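Submission sheet (multi-component)
Chains listed below:
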Amino acid sequence: MTRGYIFARLWQTLPMLLGVVVIGFLLVHIAPGDPILALAGENGDEAYYAAMRERYGLDQPLANQLGTYLWRLAQGDLGTSAIQKQPVSDVILDRLPNTLLLAGTALVISTLGGVLAGLWAASRVGGWRDRTVAIGTLLMYALPVFWLGQIAILWFGLRWGWFPVQGRTDARSRATGLAHVLDVAHHLALPALVLASQQIAVIARLTRATLVDALRSPHIDAARARGVSESRILVRHALPAALLPVVTVVGNRVGHLVSGAVVIEIVFGWPGIGRLLVSATNDRDIPVLLGLFLLIGFAVLIANLLTDITYKWLDPRIRIG
Amino acid sequence: MRAPRTTPRRYLPWIGIILTAFVAVPALFAPLIAPYDPFALAGPPLASPSRSHLMGTDSLGRDLFSAVVHGARTSLLVSICVAAPAALIGATVGLTAGFAGGWVDNVLMRITEFIQIIPRFFLAIVVLAIFGDGYRNLVIVLAISSWPVIGRAVRSQTLAVRDLAYVESARMVGARVPRIIVREILPSMWSILTVMTGLLLADVILIEASLSFLGLGDPNHASWGRLASDAQQYLRHAWWLAVFPGAAIVTAVVGVNLVVNDWRPEHSDVGS
Amino acid sequence: MKGPRRRVFAGLAAVMLVTASCASDDEPVADESDTTTGTSPATQPPEDETAEQPASTTAPTETTEATQTTDPGAPEDDGPAGAGGTLVVAISDDPGQYNPALTTSGSVHTASELMFSGLVSYDDDYAPQPDLALSWEIEDDGALYRFALRDDVAWHDGTPFTSNDVKFTFENVLTEFHSRTKASVGALLVSVDTPDDTTVEFRFSEPYAPLLQQLDVTEAPILPAHIYANGDIEGNPANLEPVGTGPFMFGSRTPDEEIVLVKNPDYFEDGLPILDEVVMRVIPDAGSQVLALESGEVDWLWGVPGPDLERFRNDDRYGTLDTLVNPGGANCIMTVSFNLDRAIFQDVQVRRAIAHALDREAFVERVAFGQGNAATAPISSGIPTAHADGLDLPDFDPDEAARLLDEAGWVRDGDGVRTAQGVDGVDDGTPLRFGVHLFPNFAPYGELMKALLIEIGVDLEINALERATMVEQVFTDRNFDTNVISYCNGTDPEVGIRRMYISGNIAPIPFSNSSGYVNTDVDALFDEARNTVDPAARAEVYRTLQEILVDELPYYWLVETTSTRVFTAECSGFKAFGHFAESASCSRE
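Outcome: structure written.
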């Protein structure tokens, strides 16, 4: 794997991102509804609206607006939030770490949890463990996220008081240092677990399926013949092969994680990108919306790239084409 | 040599079929089964389940059982309206790309990759919020953003099948390309299309539910997602409002998954 | 309410009470009504405060209609001043900037009003009370207003407050950015003069009566000129870290998470505020807000979903505070508007039939969950000087509704949807099917409408649209059949009601005359009311007006909505809005 390959791939993402921005731009601009009406408040007159349109450049032809936007974008300027009157990059970067923390934790939990559950199920195919995992994962997959989230809050938060029900930190204490980290972790646990639940289901099922497949292969039979213990076969021989498709799926599901985060952030009052998306959509804050299109497109492309790299790293047989 | 038992659990698909029937039958015969108009006032508000209201009533006094029965129809209809065009486009693109290869394949795959950049739930939020939350918009945005998954699966399947000997032989005898597609490849697509479409159906139900939670459901139709999300504010006042629609969603998603699981090609990341 | 300065304007004020109001869609609190500042500086709160009456300090009552329902059986002894403590307030979104002079957005005002002040505040009758201004005089029949300002006020950064701040704020900010003040005051304001540091004069091109109703922290918050005078007002860093004159100062902010306000030790009202800190906690989901209150993570909610309210009312661990000031404005009525351009609504009998089918009590009970009362007139009962009693509003009567529709040519076969048979402007056989436009958070109103209309053979389609689309379709394109909007009457019919009915206001402006109602008699009566000074005569004009409106039904009035604040009984001393936490205190073990 060469550095050149990575650069080439990064280079390829540029036109894709440009396309995402242009499509996003056209989408929000051809939509019905006048964004000025959302901005200008409830009263005001024609002249006031005209002045607002001019201020935000909405009186220009669409092509000019797009050109202006792309030109500024090329200079690294995402524009200014129409509602918050701050640079879009600040608005997004303020919230991005929180979503990364939430989604990242969920990714780790779901990958570890999913692989472990898959291993556990595959250790005795058709046995009660297998059945437990099969039924458990199906149920986790089938429940709407907000449903699971509200139930989790009601029980783990309110009834048993194990976790706080909302937010990222405690509102009354201004903890610093380690206490702050623990405070955030305490608040993070419930939303991250709920967000991870669906992914755990997907990854557990896939891990089990690939493990079962790998266990049928000749070299496993050979190992068995040599008298290698069943658990060692599972972990040392079957698992590495089974992990490859898991990597692909984990990478492909980054988009799902971001989507799930939207609902989770609202249920748990987590101050991240998902909530920004919902409020920017409702307020028709076009610069922020376009910034989010760009960010999410970028995140997905990077996730794909990382997936490819990890895949190749795990499986040296594949040559870089 | 003690080989572990690897035979699939044969009874699971049957459970799946029974669960799916629980959804399909009400969907087909909703007006006959539902005792009330799901939108009309049928009794006192927030009445718990009883003989006259099997699943209780909602805050306005509408019959929940009727709404759940009609919701089956809505959920199924929306899912099919999404899955059918998505499967059609996906199959066409996948077949063309896989069979033609070369630059055609390249272009088509770039397009599918491009569409997959923006997660469909994200796209659905934006489109429904600014274009209006009717089901027409939901169906359009989900169909457009869902076909690439199917397209890619069909393509890889096509690639695999294309090189198989029996296709080669058909080609040698001099059969024309469309004929090969129809006669040889399409049948082998059947299982993968069924799986993908089935999983898409389940996904659409879940996506619709989450969108309803964000206030983007269509209030003119009874749908499980809308019922389940409306119930959130009554979790501690009227358990039935959350439990029955929730159970309906789980039944449908689990049922469809069990049914298609049997056809699912190993290793595929379908449904992701 | 009987201080010396009251006489200055009492008579005129009662007549001219005009508070800009707005039709709200969702956001908390816009109208300010500060009851603390009487004509004398507020006294120390503890003396007046009783355990079961965590109301404001010197003012005897809350706003009209506001009631205290903290359970008297569970008095938390708040203790005297010094209790201090932190109040955690749930807000549903972080507006991202905290300059209330730039916008009418409810969420900005909710988050920022504690940090600012207006020239005046309002008591429970919406009569102006001193705030930054101590007294005022009116000359030239209302074309000149002269205010005497306090000389003991400092900005949060220590700079003294002067008349120049007022001049700057009006000339450079309010009449440029604040849409309501720009549209009303800005149109007629000629100049703002500052003869000395504690005097400010507003000069208008013609007599402008409503000014005193537009000077509180909601309509005209005063900004520090020394911070905003140089450079970009919208991009000023002080919009993120405000410097005001209010009871609390900006502390810190974590975007979308919380805004921390700290006590202003030099606040000009002696002894206030009591709390050390107010934390505005952003929790978007209403259900999660309730859970956070119950788990003790927050102390104050601006409102709760209906089903939870009964529980809080009956639980002595919580206090509630009812108010007619809703999120977004005062005296709001959920109103059905018929698009009179549409052929099916041109027949008043059809409108009357629909009105008979819409059970107002059902809306109060099943949609508003008791947070409100059935409307009885076009003008809210919260404006007693204009509200008419005993009007003949169509009562719930589905049979009468069916009869009227039959007569109007909409016939029904069995229990299906009615179809036209000889209706003017409608093809025979056309089904009686129309849509209702509303904001998504009002969808339950649409659902109950749909349920009630099914009974009389009418098929209703619900169009729940976010703000920009809704406003464009209803007011710009007039492409709708009916809509349900919360029209806030404000405190005088002049602004909040006139705009809905006069033919000159059928305009592409949000919350104008959406029905497209044209009646020259009505136009003339509104003008007559504006010029009638005698309250009794004025009320009579409004009665005549309302009788015409009830007769012609260009709109139908469903529910006068109220809001209920819910707070933990560990805290007390709240007002329902405005500087709601100015005299509050919390005690925790």
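Remark: Chain A touches chain B through 61 residues (CB under 8 Å).
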